[in-house]
Amino acid sequence: MNVSTLLLVTFSLFAVAACTPAPELDTSSSPSPEVVSSVKTGSTSVAPSLAETPTPVTKTANCHFTLGFDAWEPYQYAEVGGNVAGLDIELVATVVHAMSCEISYQQGTWVELLAALKAGKIDILLGASKTKAREEFALFSDAYRMEEFSLYIRKDDERYVIENDVDSFVQSGGRVGIVEDYYYGAEVAVLLAGSATSKSFVPAIMGELNIARLLDDDIDGFLEDSFVGASMLRRKALSNYIVAQGITIQTGNAYVMFSKKNVDLEKLSRFNTQLNQVKYSQTYADIVDKYSH
Questions:
Q1: What DSSP string describes 196-247?
Q2: Is residue 166 classed as helix, strand or coil in its secondary structure?
Q3: CA-based diameter of the chain, in Å?
Q4: pLDDT tens digits along 75-110
Q5: pLDDT above 60 (res 128)
Q6: Share of the chain above pLDDT 70, in %
Q7: The pTM is what?
Q8: How much is the CA Rg of the chain, to the nearest whole Å?
Q9: CA 282 to CA 190: how far, in whole Å?
Q10: How many other C-beta atoms are found inside a 10 Å radius of the C-beta of residue 113?
Q11: Mode of pairing for the β-strands spanning 64-69 and 124-128
């Protein structure tokens, strides 16, 4: 492991140092043997904005959601001290609060959390794309934002500046870092399914690893949510080394995903009712503004 990889892994470890490990997941019904960490379980540690709080519905006994999150700043992350924060976290916490329900958190990688949702070990995942495969085991909320990915390359790499889509980038020999089980839209899905083009994609368990691989010349670019990518580069002071190439992919709307094992249609309907109140309130505008700087 060279110097740039060591530095980035160190930063990644620091970001999750506040999380306390939980017991290993029961893997009898889940393909993932990994450990999911628990962070500030109990009632939510993220206070909703007081600017305009949606009208709560009648409290339902034992109404509780376990929300799984990975380190995906600025949408979802654990702060130093263990507080769970982020644009998506705060939005959903506001909705759950309006339902008069409680919320607790478990941290893991997206791959771990997706398996945990299938098995009913957690109830909610955020920022999800709706696919037929996922609809077999999950329910989806109404859309709450649009998702866009950008291709990031080394700043001094001029070989791929003229490419205008992921296909041409790959066809010209570009190796692309992705995160396992993320959905990058129809174009990338076709490339991943191709016997030849699929070899150009290098999977990782988290986006932070793609930064290290790019600096180490193990890949030529990586795909990341545009908001997340800008946040990571700013936080790690890497804007002079890694830049957005210009290729962007709009993958569609982002949804809250619920485990079918734990959440029924009645509870989903209650969630959507409060979500739609929040989306058109000052609360939503305040949350977006807070995380856009």
A1: TGGGGEEEESSHHHHHHHHHTTS-SEEEEEHHHHHHHHHHTT-TTTEEEEEE
A2: helix
A3: 60
A4: 999 998 889 999 999 999 999 999 999 999 999 999
A5: yes
A6: 78
A7: 0.60
A8: 19
A9: 40
A10: 26
A11: parallel
